[in-house]
Predict the 3D structure of the following.
Amino acid sequence: MSWGLCEKNQTCITTDNAANVIKAAELNEWMRLQCFGHRLHLAIENSVKNEPRVRRATGLCKELVGHFSHSWKKKSKLTDAQKELKLPEHSLVTECQTRWGSRQRMVDRVLEQSKALTQVLSDDRKTRHLVPTWQDIEVLESINSALKPLQEFTDILSCEEYVSVSYLKPVLYLLKNTTLAAKEEDTDLTKTIKSKIIAYLEKNYNDPETQELLDVASLVDPRFKKDYISPENVTRIEDRVRVEMEEIARTEKRPHVSDTGATEKKGLRSVGSLFTKQTPSAAVRVEAVIDAELNSYLMAPVITGESDPLAWWKIHTVNFPILSRLARKYLCVPATSSPSERLFSASGNIVTCERACLKPEMVDMLVFLAKKL
């Protein structure tokens, strides 16, 4: 399987031969799915973009972190203050626009070391203006309270392990109803940030065709099935799955050799051939086979969230031959472009100015070894 990344749309596209039944319309539908990690990062950026209080507090954090990163004396005094105040001897974190969650880590570290930072900065008259006020601390705590629960999502989405598109519908449901749900102890700023993040994600995933694509992907994932599909859409999604299963069944050409024909060539007859002649041949309808296969799959219990759906389908391909091909078609679509971007980074580290004459075959082997060893 090979992957391609469309930089304009930040879209991951698969070229797996197993998904050769994809139509052009479906491919265009998939290309509208941007990397979920990028969208979550943009949702966070959009939620704090037009807040003057947030701009001042985060700007103060950047200036404060930059001051300590350029002065070894201040670093030494900060270490002494951490030991005196019995705080963790952690270094400050610098925000990086290209790293998801770096702003939250910077704010969290400043809040953790606020007492030590205040002690060091207050001793020098030239740096007293960098001491965060109580208003700044309140704003930073509100930001941290809203964004810290999302850190786990960004860590998972930025990992190299495969994250299928079937995760999107459950993750969006979890963000809206649990992670970013408003709590009584939340400040007004925290509630505003959470609501803006949810609104941004809903706006980008509210397209009916995108929702239908996510519903189908969730349905063929044995971990979720119909759990995260709206009740009013279940029938329509099942009908679409049946239509696609019929297309797969019709395009699949398998030579059927009858047992009676094989025995007649040898001049032999079996007892079963007598019953075959007496019984009228009735071809089993494709629709009936598809309904039985789909209903059997939906009635089977869901597997745990930590299980690998592709491994499950590999085992149950015999039981669901048509539906397994449809599942392979949808579950091969990644939800995030992080693995592809890391692969391009690995290629850039291999094909340097000093090694610009490497042949493509050699680059493929070196990249493979770099990712597998």
About this structure: Residues 1-25, 254-265, 277-283 have pLDDT under 50 and may be disordered. DSSP finds 19 helices and two strands in the chain.
